[in-house]
């Protein structure tokens, strides 16, 4: 375990990556962190400041953090972030003027903190500096990767709060990071074991453990050049931590509740880091090449290509959702947020245009990714022509494949079923695998809203002629959803059935359904403005995106008022 | 003398054995243990009523010596081959029967005996042989036998007149053997079809003088006018063609009017007769006659597989002969025939012959069929190329085709659509158009050459294009396509493989299992269809790279060993890239190209 953590700490690429976990590490060790890392403000050499005990005595700990090994350049180079100038600033400015009054009488420990080790060729210089500047009040400590790993094990990941079994799952997840399915499976077991925490303090610990575990997984995965496991793990971690903080919603704010919320926000940040890295480094560079991404899938199966393409589309859309959420939360200008969303939507459009596997999904669950992207398009209001063409293609292919017993979307998402589909070109088989559909009403509603008369009519004909047996449906959360949604605890929600394949009636029905069942608004994530959590849950657990997210945009303004009046 | 004896080819053979139906008799055990039966033994077997088994026993000796021995004993009156218990023929298994059947056909012409007895024997053999292709061999043997002595045919005819059923069955042979021309002509007027048709048929086989030939044609004309049934028409047609061919009368009005009359109300029998006569000698028939017959052939019922099979072979011969154009037009009509055409897979021989055309002729055929409004014709072309598994490029040329630019482009699109899985072939058609086609369509053809062909296949199609020499008129256009392809491949190569998008090991395993299962099923299906596997024995080796087997051949006393080395066998094919990237899109694209339009 210590090796895993040491390697993780050594592999951190930026100083702020170490900053990101150090406050939680200190908190779990019993320190009181009174100053956290801030970007863009003068810290006078101090990245983190905390009060804690050292050899039975309460002291102020001032951390100056560097990533990796401490090299000559890091120690006393020309860079503004070199350690020696930072330490000088701490002595000259921070200790004299910035230590809070209540801690003025406490002794001070200046911690030279870095993920790796001091390189031998500068050790004497560091030791010389420490010896020369150590006083009665001010002392120095070296917090290298080895010590930090030890502290992680004593603190955040201590056996008392992270049992041996959970530690084993964590180790396996990290070890199998190049096999994302296996790594995620173990991470999921780790997350499940931590969800049982109920006391406020334990919930805080559990959230921090997940956060640190995700960081370690991410860094290892980054080194292995495969970010799949941490991406999926980060979605799950967000949902799991939301479950941990749910009991505090609507109650008086406490230190513990603040701590969990803080971890949640940091988790979202980490998720965005992973998603942005995955998208920016691996996906975006190839979006302009026709078939560029589809060709990059190491498989000879068209199913794998299809699944991967829709997965990417869903991830782009989810990133946009979190970006919008972050913008709103942090008061970023609307136009700036819109510009970011438009950029992400542009990526999605390029992805579709250059990878035609996206013209038709293979299973109904992929309707989630389609819905998320259509929502993004609707928010930006751009590229509607491209989207109309996409939907037209989708309808054409749906009709073609259904009629020719080809590779039409099926209800099962089991890989074995999908890989052998179509197993038979028979009516019986087709009936069995197209028993229900959320995809058809989804694209039916959007083709209707975009006034694509022919595709809408084609869907209606398809339903009447070939898919009469198919239960066209949508899904809305119900009263049981709040307790089950975030951790996929149980079957929940309400299936809205008997929908037409397209047309104004479809939109009206869906709109009605969103008003009939009020549970959506009382979902904690919705009520607190953290709506991307719901979308994350939908994608992660394969639940349809509730029409409440998108139907209002499809209802003509006059019609919406009429529906409201009718409902009233 | 040893236990084994050599046959006339010098090969050691098992001695003749005496088999009872079902199991060997004691006598046969005896005989099996030593050389073939002596004269005395055969006489004894004849007395015991076991001679039939000796002749028909599948291990019985078929050598000339044995047949001579039987004939000599029969002619000497020591055994009577014509007096065998014919009712026991039905009890013989097929293998034994057909061994003896062939033996009898050889021996019949050598035997002496009464015509009635011989006719009974011959008819019994024909009846037992059923619908086997060799069932008529005894009739031929009888004909030869009857020709050996004119009295035999005369007696046969007399017996027929007297109402003997065996003589009636062999009326045609007796008329022919005795060359009873006048009698045959007279009998063509009979109302009784069972007697009329043998007479008609006999006329087609008899040696006739020029005068008799004309007389026969007149008589046949009267027959076809008097009797409008399909069977009579079929027989008259055959007779008219035979007589006409032999006497050079086919271009005479008498013959052509008669043939047209016979073809007038063609039914299944006439269709069969047309196919059969075209098969036997279309080369010798004048074009108008062939044309009339092919016209009738186009009306063949698609469910009559035997006629279609015969017609297929006849037309395939004609494609390579002087009536090639007529044959090609007929094949086309048979396939298209008002939506009820014959599937191309039933005209496999035609397909093979058509594909042997010279490059110019094949280019004309390909262009004509691909540009046809009948999709079945376009599909037939695809089927023909598929049946012979022809993948390589053809020397396509537009010379003499006079296609408009629009048609040239349509041809290219359809070539891509129908020959998509034979990219080299499709590419060669496009390159042909690039060489000689209209300049204004060149960019479109280049686009097609790039996508769907070159972009989908990294192997053969690209190799073919890369091999086009610099002095080829199509070189510049092709080089431009290859340059574009290279740029695209470079761009695709930049992404490499993204680990994040890789399917998991368990998914790969599932896909591999499905793939293996599909291949296994295809292999089993191919095995079930294999003619070869029905003929050979099969061994499955669990270990090793060669097999050591022991066997004992017929006439051999000791086992022999044989080492058979294992040899590898493989078949490879190239999957189009889009089949992985977007199979549904590819299907739609191919569909669009087949219809001649490019799918968006």
Descriptive keywords:
heterodimer, A: 568 residues, alpha/beta, five-stranded mixed sheet, two-stranded parallel ribbon, 9 strands, B: 600 residues, mainly alpha, two-stranded antiparallel sheet, 31 helices, 3% strand, flat, disordered N terminus
What would you note in describing this structure?
- The complex is a heterodimer of chains A (568) and B (600).
- Chain A is of the alpha/beta class.
- Chain A has 26 helices and 9 strands.
- In chain A, strand 2 (48-54) and strand 3 (57-66) form a beta hairpin.
- In chain A, helix 13 (334-354) crosses helix 14 (367-380).
- The model of chain A has no long low-confidence stretch (mean pLDDT 90).
- By secondary structure, chain B is mostly helical.
- In chain B, 61% of the residues lie in helices and 3% in strands.
- In chain B, helix 23 (405-418) packs antiparallel against helix 24 (423-436) and helix 23 (405-418) packs parallel to helix 25 (442-456).
- Mean pLDDT of chain B is 86; it is low at 1-34.
- Chain A binds chain B through residues 178-182, 225-228, 231, 278, 282-283, 285-286, 289-305, 307-308, 311-312, 355-357, 359-360, 396-397, 400-401, 404, 406-407, 415-416, 419-420, and chain B through 488, 491-492, 494-508, 510-511, 514, 575, 577, 579-585, 587-588.
């Amino acid at each position: 375990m210590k090796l895993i953590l040491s390697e993780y700490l050594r592999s951190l690429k930026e100083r702020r990556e170490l900053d990101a976990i150090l406050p939680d590490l200190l908190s779990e060790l019993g320190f009181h962190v009174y100053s956290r890392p801030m970007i863009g403000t003068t810290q006078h050499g101090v990245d983190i400041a905390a009060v804690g005990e050292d050899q039975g005595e309460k002291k102020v700990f001032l951390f100056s953090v560097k990533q990796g090994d401490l090299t000559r350049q890091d120690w006393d180079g020309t860079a503004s972030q070199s350690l020696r100038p930072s330490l000088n600033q701490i002595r000259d400015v921070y200790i004299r003027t910035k230590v809070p009054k209540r801690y003025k009488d406490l002794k001070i420990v200046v911690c030279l903190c870095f993920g790796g080790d001091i390189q031998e060729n500068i050790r004497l210089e560091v030791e010389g500096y420490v010896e020369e500047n150590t006083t009665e009040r001010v002392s120095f400590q070296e917090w290298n990767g080895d010590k930090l790993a030890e502290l992680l094990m004593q603190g955040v990941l201590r056996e008392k709060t992270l049992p041996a079994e959970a530690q084993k799952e964590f180790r396996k997840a990290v070890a199998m990071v190049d096999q994302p399915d296996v790594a995620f499976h173990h991470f999921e077991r780790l997350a499940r074991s931590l969800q049982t925490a109920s006391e406020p303090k334990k919930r805080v610990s559990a959230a921090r453990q997940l956060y640190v575990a995700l960081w370690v997984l991410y860094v290892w995965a980054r080194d292995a050049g495969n970010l799949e496991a941490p991406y999926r793990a980060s979605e799950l971690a967000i949902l799991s931590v939301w479950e941990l903080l749910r009991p505090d919603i609507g109650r008086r704010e406490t230190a513990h509740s603040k701590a969990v919320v803080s971890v949640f926000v940091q988790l979202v940040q980490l998720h965005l880091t992973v998603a942005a890295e995955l998208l920016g480094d691996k996906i975006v560079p190839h979006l302009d090449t026709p078939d560029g991404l589809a060709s990059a899938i190491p498989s000879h199966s068209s199913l794998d290509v299809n699944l991967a393409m829709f997965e990417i589309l869903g991830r782009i859309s989810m990133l946009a959702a979190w970006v919008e959420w972050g913008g709103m939360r942090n008061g970023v200008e609307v136009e700036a947020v819109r510009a970011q969303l438009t950029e992400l939507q542009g990526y999605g459009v390029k992805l579709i245009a250059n990878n035609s596997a996206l013209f038709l999904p293979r299973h109904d669950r992929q309707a989630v990714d389609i819905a998320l992207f259509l929502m993004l398009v609707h928010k930006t209001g751009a590229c509607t022509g491209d989207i109309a063409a996409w939907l037209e293609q989708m309808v054409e292919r749906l009709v073609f494949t259904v009629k020719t017993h080809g590779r039409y979307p099926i209800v099962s998402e089991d890989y074995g079923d999908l890989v052998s589909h179509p197993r038979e070109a028979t009516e019986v088989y087709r009936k069995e695998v197209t028993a229900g559909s959320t995809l058809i009403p989804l694209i039916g509603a959007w083709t209707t809203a975009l006034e694509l008369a022919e595709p809408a009519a084609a869907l209606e004909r398809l339903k009447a002629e070939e898919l009469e047996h198919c239960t066209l449906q949508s899904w809305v959360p119900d009263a049981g959803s709040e307790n089950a949604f975030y951790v996929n605890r149980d079957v929940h929600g309400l299936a809205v059935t008997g929908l037409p394949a397209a047309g104004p009636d479809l939109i009206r029905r869906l709109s009605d359904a969103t008003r009939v069942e009020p549970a959506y608004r009382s979902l904690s994530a919705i009520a607190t403005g953290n709506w991307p959590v719901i979308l994350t849950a939908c994608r992660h657990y394969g639940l349809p995106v509730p029409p409440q997210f998108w139907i209002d945009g499809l209802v003509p303004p006059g019609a919406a008022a009429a529906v409201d009046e009718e409902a009233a | 003398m040893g236990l084994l004896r050599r046959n006339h080819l010098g090969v050691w053979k098992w001695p003749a054995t005496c088999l009872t139906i079902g199991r060997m008799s004691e006598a046969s055990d005896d005989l099996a243990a030593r050389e073939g039966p002596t004269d005395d033994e055969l006489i004894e077997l004849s007395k015991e009523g076991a001679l039939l088994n000796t002749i028909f026993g599948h291990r019985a000796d078929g050598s000339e010596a044995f047949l001579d021995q039987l004939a000599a004993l029969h002619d000497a009156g020591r055994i009577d081959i014509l007096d065998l218990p014919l009712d026991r023929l039905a009890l013989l298994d097929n293998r034994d029967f057909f061994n003896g059947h062939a033996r009898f056909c050889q021996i019949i012409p050598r035997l002496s005996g009464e015509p009635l007895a011989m006719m009974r024997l011959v008819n019994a053999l024909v009846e037992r042989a059923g619908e086997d292709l060799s069932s008529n061999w005894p009739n031929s043997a009888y004909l030869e036998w009857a020709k050996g002595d004119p009295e035999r045919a005369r007696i046969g005819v007399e017996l027929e007149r007297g109402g003997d059923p065996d003589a009636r069955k062999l009326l045609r042979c007796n008329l022919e053997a005795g060359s009873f021309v006048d009698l045959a002509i007279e009998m063509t007027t009979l109302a009784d079809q069972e007697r009329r048709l043998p007479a008609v048929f006999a006329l087609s086989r008899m040696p006739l003088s020029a005068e008799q030939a004309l007389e026969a044609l007149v008589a046949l004309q009267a027959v076809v006018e008097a009797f409008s049934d399909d069977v009579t028409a079929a027989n008259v047609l055959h007779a008219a063609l035979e007589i006409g061919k032999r006497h050079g009368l086919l271009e005479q009005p008498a013959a052509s009017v008669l043939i047209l009359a016979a073809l007038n109300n063609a039914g299944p029998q006439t269709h069969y007769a047309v196919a059969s006569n075209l098969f036997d000698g279309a080369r010798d028939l004048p074009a108008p006659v062939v044309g009339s017959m092919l016209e009738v052939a186009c009306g063949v019922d698609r469910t009559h597989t035997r006629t279609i099979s015969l017609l297929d072979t006849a037309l395939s011969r004609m494609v390579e002969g002087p009536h090639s154009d007529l044959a090609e037009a007929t094949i086309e009509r048979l396939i298209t025939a008002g939506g009820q055409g014959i599937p191309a897979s039933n005209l496999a021989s035609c397909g093979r012959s058509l594909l042997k055309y010279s490059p110019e002729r094949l280019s004309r055929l390909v262009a004509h069929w691909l540009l046809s409004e009948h999709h079945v014709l376009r599909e037939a072309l695809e089927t023909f190329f598929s049946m012979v598994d022809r993948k390589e490029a053809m020397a396509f040329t537009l010379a003499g085709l006079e296609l408009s630019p629009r048609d040239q482009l349509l041809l290219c699109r359809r070539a891509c659509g129908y020959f998509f899985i034979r990219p080299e072939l499709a590419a060669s058609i496009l390159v042909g158009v690039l060489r000689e086609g209209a300049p204004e369509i060149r960019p479109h053809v280049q686009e097609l050459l790039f996508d769907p062909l070159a972009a989908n296949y990294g192997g053969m199609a690209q190799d073919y294009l890369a091999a086009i020499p610099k002095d080829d008129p199509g070189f510049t256009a092709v080089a431009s396509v290859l340059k574009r392809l290279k740029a695209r491949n470079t761009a695709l190569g930049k992404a490499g493989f993204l680990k994040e998008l890789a399917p998991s090991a368990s998914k790969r395993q599932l896909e591999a299992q499905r793939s293996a299962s599909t291949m296994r099923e295809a292999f089993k299906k191919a095995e079930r269809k294999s003619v070869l596997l029905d003929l050979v024995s099969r061994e499955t080796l669990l270990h090793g790279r060669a097999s050591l087997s022991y066997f004992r051949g017929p006439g051999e006393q000791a086992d022999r060993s044989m080492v058979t080395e294992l040899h590898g066998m493989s078949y490879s094919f190239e999957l189009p890239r889009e089949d992985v990237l977007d199979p549904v899109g590819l299907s739609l694209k191919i569909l669009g190209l087949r219809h001649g339009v490019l799918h968006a």
